[in-house]
Specification:
The chain is mostly helical and 90 residues long. It has one domain. Helix content is 82%, strand content 0%. It has 3 helices and no strands. Helix 2 runs antiparallel to helix 3. The radius of gyration is 21 Å and the shape is elongated.
Length: 90
């Protein structure tokens, strides 16, 4: 006898089957991850150096907020590009 979880998963797979992705797509997604990890690391290094040099605590806080904002922006760009790749368009 199947559990309610197993029955629910069967229904879900009928309405929205799991998409199979090719090795090439996996490689392209991994490359995007790598590129954006490098961009994020570059900004973190740059802004953390500025934060360390900042004499004013308010300026340091502004730089931390800028870092957070830029990290979120780059993550959003990454997710958008990955979704376009998954949908078939570059």
């Amino acid at each position: 006898m199947k559990s309610s979880y197993e029955l629910a998963m069967e229904r879900l797979n009928k309405t929205a089957p799991t998409a199979k992705i090719s090795d090439q797509l996996k490689q392209e997604l991994a490359e995007l991850d790598s590129q954006y990890a490098a961009k994020i690391a570059e900004r973190e290094i740059s802004l953390n150096a500025e934060i360390a040099r900042a004499a004013d605590p308010e300026k340091a806080q502004e730089l931390r907020e800028q870092l957070t904002h830029e990290r979120k922006k780059l993550q959003s760009q990454l997710e958008d590009k990955k979704e376009r790749l998954r949908q078939g368009g570059k």
